[in-house]
Design goal:
There is one protein chain. The radius of gyration is 19 Å and the shape is elongated. It has 5 helices and no strands. By secondary structure, the chain is an all-alpha fold. Helices cover 47% and strands 0% of the residues.
Length: 98
């Protein structure tokens, strides 16, 4: 109930209807994850949020169009710019990047 009230505060600021009080725990958790997707959508935070929620899985690449280019053990890290690796020979490129 407390989580629903907090989610409803966020929804109210953009004139979205309140979540129903009849949602069970699993349904509420799913709705919160969906709310986070919408709230963080344009802030480039979704990847980190999924990682934090332990939802960053290989299935994500096939089940979510936004992550169809996601490669496990590569896409979690960005490549280190060539200029940096050229300046410091002790730096190794992140896994999966050349």
């Amino acid at each position: 109930a407390e989580a629903r009230e907090l989610v409803n505060l966020v929804r109210a600021r953009v004139d979205m209807p309140a979540l129903p009080a009849t949602l069970g725990v699993a349904a509420m958790r799913d709705r919160i994850l969906r709310e986070r997707l919408l709230e963080l959508g344009l802030e480039q935070s979704r990847l980190l949020d999924l990682k934090r929620q332990n939802l960053l899985t290989p299935a994500l690449a096939t089940n979510d169009d936004e992550f169809r280019f996601f490669t496990v053990n590569k896409s979690e890290l960005l490549p280190i710019p060539v200029t940096e690796t050229n300046l410091n020979p002790g730096v190794t490129q992140n896994p999966g990047w050349r």
